[in-house]
Design brief:
Elements: H1 8-11, E1 14-18, E2 22-25, H2 28-39, E3 78-80, E4 90-100, E5 107-117, E6 121-123, H3 125-133, H4 142-157, E7 161-168, E8 177-181
Antiparallel strand pairs: 1-2, 3-6, 4-5, 5-7, 7-8
GO molecular function, one term: preQ1 synthase activity
Keywords: Cytoplasm, NADP, Oxidoreductase, Queuosine biosynthesis
Protein name: NADPH-dependent 7-cyano-7-deazaguanine reductase
Length: 203
Amino acid sequence: MRTPLMSNALLVFLKGPNPRKGLVPWNVGKLTSQWARRCSGRGGGESPSQSYGDYENAKQLGERVLAADSPYKAVLDTVPNPHPDVKYVARFACPEFTSLCPVTGQPDFAHLVIDYVPQTKLVESKSLKLYLQSFRNHGDFHEACTVGIARRLVEELDPLWLRIGGYWYPRGGIPIDVFYATGDPPSGVWIPDQGVPPFRGRG
């Protein structure tokens, strides 16, 4: 099993300023050996359930990546589900989702809540963030954005079940909420309420 690579955060653990070279690494060798012992199960750490090679499909993870200028160009990465034998819900909330009205070009805002029961694949969270960000300059109606996001995730993940709640902020004084699910939720899975109350204005 290959040892997972040390994160950039650990490699750039800094001691302080250097008059000639600026910031200098602090005891990187010691950190590296401690990290290796932890990942190999020695020194009190636990052995990882998956190796670094399992995440090679996550092309955007650990890299500086700009969001695509269109959701049609955005890439969604996946990683293996570490518990494919267990039915559980993974939830993503995006309280500041933004897109554009396709007619007026004015910005629209929404609180999105995505729940899904995975099979063999999980969506990699950074790629999901960049995918949602790609809607920033994309013109489409509330219904098209909400259902389109759900269908794209279903296409990439093939989940056992998925639902999305799109809670859009009022436009013209009327809030629009959009809900989509692939079907009835599987039995034996705890699916909590999405926790977004109906819009009441100041009342």
